[in-house]
Amino acid sequence: MVARRSSDKGSGGVALVAAVLVVLAGAGGAGGAALNSGASGGGGAAPVESIGVRKWDAKRAARGGDTAGAMGHLGVGISKQAVKQELDCVANSFGQVRDFLVRTPCTSLDRLLLAVGDQAGNAAVVSVVWVTFPGRNQARQFDRVIDVAGSGDVKPLSGGVFGLPEVQFTAAHYWSEIRDTTITIAESEPATGRVEPDLLDAMTEVAAQLPRP
Q1: What is the average per-residue pLDDT within 5-34?
Q2: Which of 20, 52, 151, 206 has the fewest C-beta atoms lying within 10 Å of its C-beta?
Q3: Phi and psi of 53, rounded to 5°?
């Protein structure tokens, strides 16, 4: 498995619109916690563990498929989630990424969108995309393309489906991983209120550990 962080990938930002199957999820983890890496549960509460410590536990939960538990370790709760499975990678991509997929078709495309938030109105959107190829060599070649700044992207699902302002995924908070023949691409963006950059980075890295649906 190869992990590659590309916080400088930024493709300029594209407003994304997609038809999705929406699945409402009860708030998971610590839904009342502030979307702030330094926040504590209330006055006089014990000091919160560092984001690095929480991220370690969150990754372990994510690898086991516990999405709500993974986000809960980071102090955020899932309010809504959407998932879509399809085969057409070309129609759901753009730029050099799309050009690659025209020449090298994928075998499956799975996309997940999470809305996370707190009771104070702070919210973020986390996208996870899984692109699978016939072999490992194609997956490695695709990884080299998608991790380049300005190369395009596989379109995340739209945040508008959650009733949140339309989200522009800029790749400022971006993480990709290779697992066998599948590339996992995770991105996070703030939606409303205040969301700390280090928390957005942590949510992105953790989300990239989730197994394909």
Answers
A1: 40
A2: 52
A3: -65, -45
